[in-house]
């Protein structure tokens, strides 16, 4: 499974294990999702050890009810989320800027997933990769780098009923991209709270237009 380096896992597992039981007893919801397992291993997995996205749990729960096998996904960033999208949709194409991480993802990437390795440059090729693939996508995931420019550049490859999943959408530096999408008719559904691995809260947003493939 992927999300943190092996060194990180080994150096933190013992300390993490000693602090989670009380939290799990107080919050059975976290036990059902496998938060303790993800926290100890520093890997975004569920209770069974299967890869899941590093989003808010509430957002993952919502997506599980609406993602369909016919849908095509473009993902800015890669990792366990790439495997999850590949398991639940027709295809996923992910772009990754970090060579070492890209090599790890490639070791286990499934047949219906494509990983593009593109150097990171602000407002460069990375944020333009959906268009460069020549494909159309029902779902675009903004969970990598240069996120505002990714939002500005992805709409030409998004289907008319397409949606955007934007993780860590609470961060102030992403406001310009969210405002851009709002100005183009996108509504915003926010999911806050805990997700895998970490103990701090955050936000995952789904951006959608009135006619959308999620039936929102």
Summarize the topology.
Blueprint: H1 6-17, H2 21-26, H3 28-33, H4 35-41, H5 57-66, E1 72-76, H6 80-88, E2 91-96, H7 99-106, E3 113-117, H8 129-133, E4 137-142, H9 147-153, E5 158-167, H10 175-183, E6 187-193, E7 202-208
Parallel strand pairs: 1-2, 1-4, 2-3, 4-5
Antiparallel strand pairs: 5-7, 6-7
What portion of the residues fall into strands of 2 or more residues? 15-25%
Q: Profile the largest sheet.
A: 7 strands, mixed
pLDDT average, as an integer? Answer: 91
DSSP summary: helix tally: 10
- State the domain count: 1
Structural summary, described in words:
The chain has a single domain (51-208), classed as Vaccinia Virus protein VP39 (Rossmann fold). It contains ten helices and seven strands. The chain has helices at residues 6-17, 21-26, 28-33, 35-41, 57-66, 80-88, 99-106, 129-133, 147-153, 175-183, and strands at 72-76, 91-96, 113-117, 137-142, 158-167, 187-193, 202-208. A hairpin with an 8-residue loop joins strand 6 (187-193) and strand 7 (202-208). Helix 9 packs parallel to helix 10. The protein is globular, with a radius of gyration of 17 Å. The protein starts with 5 loop residues before the first helix and ends in an 8-residue tail after the last strand.
Q: Which keywords apply here?
A:
216 residues, alpha/beta, Rossmann fold, seven-stranded mixed beta sheet, 7 strands
Summarize this structure briefly.
The chain is an alpha/beta fold. The longest helix has 12 residues. It is built from ten helices and seven strands.
């Amino acid at each position: 499974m992927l999300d943190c380096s092996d060194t990180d896992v080994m150096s933190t597992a013992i300390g993490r294990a000693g602090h989670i039981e009380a939290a799990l007893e107080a919050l059975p919801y976290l036990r059902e999702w496998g938060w303790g397992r993800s926290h100890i291993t520093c890997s975004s997995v569920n209770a069974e050890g299967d890869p899941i996205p590093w989003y808010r749990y509430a957002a993952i729960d919502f997506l599980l009810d609406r993602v369909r096998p016919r849908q095509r996904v473009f993902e800015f960033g890669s990792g366990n989320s790439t495997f999850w999208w590949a398991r639940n949709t027709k295809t996923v194409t992910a772009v990754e800027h970090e060579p070492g991480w890209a090599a790890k993802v490639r070791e286990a990437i499934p047949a219906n997933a494509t990983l593009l390795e593109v150097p990171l440059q602000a407002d460069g090729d990375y944020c333009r990769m959906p268009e460069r693939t020549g494909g159309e996508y029902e779902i675009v995931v903004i969970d990598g780098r240069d996120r505002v420019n990714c939002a500005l550049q992805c709409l030409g490859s998004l289907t008319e009923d397409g949606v955007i999943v934007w993780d860590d959408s609470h961060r102030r530096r992403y406001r310009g991209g969210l405002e851009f999408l709002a100005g183009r008719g996108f509504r915003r559904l926010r999911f806050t709270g805990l997700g895998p691995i970490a103990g701090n809260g955050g936000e995952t947003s789904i951006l959608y237009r009135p006619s959308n493939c999620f039936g929102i």
